[in-house]
Amino acid sequence: MNKKFFLDLLFPRFCFGCQKEGSYLCEDCQNILGILESHQTYSGKNLKDLYWATPYQNPLMKKLIHCFKYEPFLKELSKSLSLLIINHFQLIEKQPDFSEFILIPVPLYKKRLKWRGFNQAEEIGKEVSEFLKIPLISNCLLKIKETPPQIELLETERKESVLGVFWVKKEEIEEEKILLIDDVFTTGATMEECARVLKKAGAKEVIGLVVARG
Predict the structure, then answer these.
(1) Rounded distance, CA 36 to CA 85, Å?
(2) What is the CATH number of the domain that holds 88?
(3) Which stretch of DSSP H or E encloses residue 87?
(4) Residue 183 included in any domain
(5) What is the C-alpha R_g of the chain?
(6) What domain range is 154 assigned to?
(7) Is the omega angle on the peptide bond into residue 72 within 30 degrees of 0, that is, cis?
């Protein structure tokens, strides 16, 4: 018997939506979230496009993200959240071809990484990487300065707070097509800045990928 079996026995999983035992997000409640069945194109200054699975406004979605990123830091929610992205890809009529891309998670500053114990974008990326069969590169885009939590800032402050906080190992991404993955896209300030430094370092194109969009 493995460790996972004992953890499930001691701490059974209950759906965040309906409290049904078995998983953190049952199939019925997943349907309530309204996974997008079509791709809504996006064009930013540095992001060529953006894929997202569901709107962030749903209270259940907010609860899942909050318990993933904040106490009780349910790292295993990454499987339920990444499944939303995977289901979105399976539902859309014209499925994108990302076979020539690499997957890069939006990084955390080392102090915040230590506090949480994991990078939520990287954990989601692990599952998505397996589904898309493309490599996950988690050590080439780094956050080198601490910033206040984006949720506490106004839109203009968010853009200013992320300027100059990311750094790229150029040799890792030159001429690469990149899928930049994170949990939530709100104003887009963080993703746009990440995309800017990636392109400046030689990336061919950068497309965003998130669980939910605010």
Answers:
(1) 9
(2) 3.40.50
(3) helix 77-91
(4) yes
(5) 17
(6) 23-213
(7) yes
